[in-house]
Specification:
The chain is an alpha+beta fold and about 900 residues long. The chain has 14 helices and 49 strands. About 15% of the residues lie in helices and about 45% in strands. The longest helix has 21 residues, at about 10-30.
Length: about 900
């Protein structure tokens, strides 16, 4: 007896035939003679002749004398026998042997199985084992990586090869390609035999083209055209401008989603009876395109009828609740308004302590008047109390860091507003993943609620080395280490080193948000900052003054209310302001080269200041807010010792609105003023030093260059054109120095635009914005030099050259032709410095070509810019690109169309 796996049914038929032959043989064998019956007596009734029973052959049973396995290589004979019920000494029949064959083949270990010795009882099971897979080879797959396929299929090296598993894996690979929209993909499996009963399994893949959605047809729509309805769908028709879109491929799940989106759209437009009666996707014969057809029934359009609230909670005023809803009688029916009204009523109940209030809208449809009346039924509920607060998932952050942000305590009356506020405060810590929510579950009694904060920690330590290029500061190198949750206590520790063409700094800082577990924040910073200011000669930057600041600041803050807080600070800074050597002549600052305003800035001074801030903060997140507002009023008084005295006042206000659909609108207003407490420093000299003033421009005011807004001095040279003296107004030849201002204001209105899920995963956040602002309020500086005008022509200025003591210098020519510089107006100085001789010497002079200085930009007139930008968290580091155009500007303002900033982490 022998059978293969694929011939099991033939073997069963053969066994059945053998049994039937045995039965037939039993029926034709001679039957034993029956005894003759007695003749019936006369008159006696005759009994019916008994029916002759049909004999049934009993199964032939034999006993197994011996049992062995032939052909096993990897599998032990005992293991082979364990898959059967055959044992030595056991009786067996043909059915028993047939079941043994089926059991062995069902194990998937054997390609062929046969049984010999059936008649004698010496049973021999002959097997041919399935081969072992040596390797899996994928050929032809380009659009789907091999690692994505191999993790989905079940066949793997060192496993047993079976044709059933191959067929299943082929089906899996086909399904993978269909998920990618490649319905024309085909897979041809092949087996390559190797020695030692091993095989290579080769899947030859023909991927085929991507099956696109060529057309989306909608039948039955009359109110809205096809294009309007297609806009609601995630699936898009394949067009040339959508080459990079993944939504043009067919997806059955996306098709179901599109039907739901259509229904939601109609429900928000008042069509409460809308339905999709059929949705069919047809694949073209070449399997390259799909045509999707929807059949819809729009139905009539409804308006809202009477809107009422029926509350079983006695504390609620039903009429007041109904009036507070966004739904008004006579408005077009909108399902979204119904959902938002349910949420609003639930939140209102939560404010009064009812945690698990059920709000059920009851619809009353009037098909004659086409109105939809609504009754919001608020079920009876008990006021809830917080039974306990559970915090899970925090492995590094201590419980108290989270609990101190929760505005409810165990035993307090439940309040949904306080729960939401607690959620926002925990999100603002920045220690946990976004979309964190505090869950509410029933407690041990109907009036008890358990608050559960399931947090998922994220990395709060940052170690960054970066290099990049900025339109602000050219080449940049930064190194910083920061831990925002130091020791899991919410403390912040930071250190940074920055180096660029125009600034260098080293800073160390530490902040303890809860001193001695009290709601008092304290922190401090020490720093060394080296800043090089510059001016423009055309488009070229030239360094002007260098400001080296060394100092420290300590600060403390306390909350006043839930949203109001106050902070105080003290700082001490030592400034060393110097000019580049090119602006010095004879060891003195040359006002002709530098300008009086820069020479006046030179010097060493100490600034000792104390300040405070009042802060109102209701933002839902300090990292990426989408709603709420923040107001800051700050004042700093310099003069508590030191060399500088002033009062600096600043105001900053930000407001965010979540408009729905991912759109976030924000408005920002800020302003500041510095009032000097010092006396006059001379005519034409402002009381506030140039290093203490405000500056406005890039990056705060996009559309303008760095320090591009506000008061400035422009030095314009005279030139001769066609024999006439004129000003050289070529921008490349104008020296432009920004002076800063004592007062400024700025405002911005910005709309963040949502993108698809894929773009959000890439870290793209585009926005459009409108900005305005101005910088002004300083004293007009004195002219650097006065030029004489003769007959309408500005004459060069000839000035004597002075020594370090302020004495004019002269020169005379020796016999050998060399010129010697001396301070003697006449004669030659001897060893003691006495001038001997009467011959006069020639005065040493310098000639300054004429130029005109104009003071511009000192105006409160608003500047205005409009633009668009995008933030991108790229693999190379954070990138910000802005395209902004200045609509309004003042004379002298420096505008800039494109700005960017990029860095690379490594």
């Amino acid at each position: 007896m022998k059978v293969s796996k694929f011939g099991a049914s033939a073997t069963a038929a053969l066994l059945a035939g053998t049994m039937l032959s045995g039965i037939a043989g039993a029926q034709t064998a001679p039957a034993p003679a029956a005894p003759r019956a007695a003749a019936p007596q006369a008159g006696a009734p005759q009994a019916a002749a008994p029916e002759t029973p049909v004999p049934v052959a009993a199964p032939v049973t034999r006993a197994i004398k011996s049992l062995r396995v032939e052909g096993s290589q990897r599998i032990e004979p005992d293991t082979v026998l364990s898959y059967t019920k055959l044992r030595v000494g056991q009786a067996y029949t043909n059915e028993t042997l047939d079941q043994a064959l089926r059991d062995l083949l069902a194990s998937d270990f054997f390609a062929d199985v046969s049984i010999a010795g059936v008649e004698s009882g010496d049973i021999v099971i002959r097997i041919r084992e399935n081969p072992v897979i040596n390797r899996i080879v994928l050929e032809g797959n380009k659009r789907l990586k091999s690692d994505k396929i191999t993790k989905e299929i079940k066949l793997a090296p060192r496993q047993i090869f079976t044709r059933t598993a191959v067929r299943q894996d082929v089906a899996r690979i086909v399904e993978l390609y269909r998920r990618q929209g490649r319905f024309g993909a085909s897979i041809e499996p092949k087996m390559v035999a190797l020695d030692q009963n091993r095989v290579d399994v080769v899947f030859e893949i023909s991927e085929g083209p991507k099956s696109k959605v060529r057309q989306i047809n909608i039948i039955g729509n009359e109110v809205f055209d096809d294009d309007k309805l297609r806009e609601q769908m995630a699936t898009k028709q394949a067009r040339l401008f959508r080459l990079l879109s993944s939504n043009t491929s067919y997806d059955q799940d996306r098709m179901a989603y599109d039907q739901q989106k259509m229904r939601q759209f109609y429900l928000t437009e008042g069509y409460a009876d809308f339905k999709v009666t059929s949705a069919v996707a047809e694949l073209s014969p070449d399997k390259s395109d799909f045509i999707i057809t929807y059949v819809v029934e729009e139905g009539p359009r409804y308006k809202f009828g009477d809107v009422t609230v029926d509350s079983s909670i006695r504390d609620f005023n039903n009429e007041a609740l109904a009036k507070g809803l966004a739904i008004k009688k006579g408005d077009w029916y909108n399902a979204k308004l119904v959902e938002s009204s349910v949420d609003s009523l639930s939140e209102t109940a939560g404010l009064f302590g009812y945690a698990f209030t059920e709000v059920n809208p009851e619809f009353q449809r009037d098909r004659e008047t086409l109105t939809m009346s609504l009754n919001f039924n608020i079920a009876e509920a008990k006021r809830s109390y917080v039974e306990r607060i559970d915090i899970n998932g925090n492995t590094n952050t201590q419980d108290k860091v989270i609990r101190r942000e929760i505005r409810l305590s165990e035993g307090d009356a439940f309040n949904s507003f306080q729960v939401k506020r607690s959620q926002d405060r925990i999100n603002s810590l920045g220690f946990f993943q976004e979309k964190f929510e505090i869950k509410q579950t029933p407690g041990s009694a109907p009036d008890r609620v358990v608050l559960t904060a399931d947090v998922e920690e994220k990395s709060t330590g940052e170690l960054q080395l970066s290099a990049g290029f900025s339109s602000l500061e050219s080449f940049i190198v930064q190194a910083s280490i920061r831990q925002r949750n130091f020791r899991g206590k919410g403390q912040e520790l930071r250190a940074s080193v920055n180096y660029s063409s125009y600034s260098k700094s080293v800073e160390l800082g530490f902040t303890e948000p809860y001193l001695f577990d009290k709601n008092i924040a304290i922190g401090g910073d020490i720093f060394r900052r080296d800043y090089n200011s510059f001016n423009y000669v055309g488009d070229d930057r030239k360094t002007t003054y260098s400001q080296v600041s060394t100092g420290f600041q300590i600060r403390a803050g306390i909350p006043l209310t839930e949203y109001w807080s106050a902070s105080a600070r003290y700082g001490l800074t030592f400034d060393d302001v110097s000019l580049d050597s090119q602006y010095f002549t004879g060891g003195q600052c040359d006002v002709v080269k530098a300008g009086r305003y820069l020479c006046e800035a030179i010097g060493n001074r100490a600034t000792s200041s104390v300040g405070y801030s009042l802060i109102f903060d209701s933002l839902n997140s300090r990292l990426r807010p989408s709603r709420g507002q923040r107001l800051v009023l700050s004042q700093d008084f310099a003069g508590l010792g030191g060399d500088v005295r002033y009062i600096r006042t600043r105001f900053d206000a930000d407001k965010y609105w979540g408009l729905g659909g991912g759109f976030i609108l924000s408005a920002s207003v800020e302003g500041g003023y510095i009032h000097s407490l010092e006396g006059s420093r001379g005519p034409g000299i402002d009381k506030v030093r140039i290093t203490d003033r405000f500056y406005l421009g890039e990056p705060e005011f996009r559309g303008f260059d760095i320090r591009g807004v506000g008061p400035r001095v422009q030095r314009i040279q005279y030139t001769t054109v066609d024999g006439k003296q004129v000003l050289d107004t070529d921008k490349n030849n104008i020296i432009d120095d920004a002076l800063g201002g004592r007062a400024y204001y700025s405002g911005r209105l910005e709309l963040e635009i949502p993108l698809s899920a894929g773009a959000r995963e890439l870290g793209l956040r585009p926005s459009i914005y409108l900005q305005t602002g101005a910088l002004f309020g300083i004293t007009k500086p004195r002219p650097t030099i006065e030029f004489e005008t003769v007959n309408g022509v500005v004459q060069p200025k000839v000035s004597p050259v002075l020594d370090t003591a302020g004495n004019p210098l002269y020169y005379f020519t020796q016999a050998d032709g060399n010129q010697v510089v001396t301070s003697c107006p006449a004669g030659i100085p001897d060893a003691s410095g006495t001038c001997n001789g009467g011959s006069g010497n020639t005065a040493l002079t310098t000639t300054q070509l004429p130029f005109k200085e104009q003071f511009v930009g000192n105006s409160a007139k608003p500047r205005l810019s409009i633009g668009a930008g995008v933030n991108w968290t790229s693999p190379f580091g954070p990138l910000r690109i802005d395209l902004a155009y200045a609509l309004l500007k003042d004379k002298g303002d420096d505008t800039k169309l494109i700005t960017f900033n990029v860095g690379t982490s490594f």
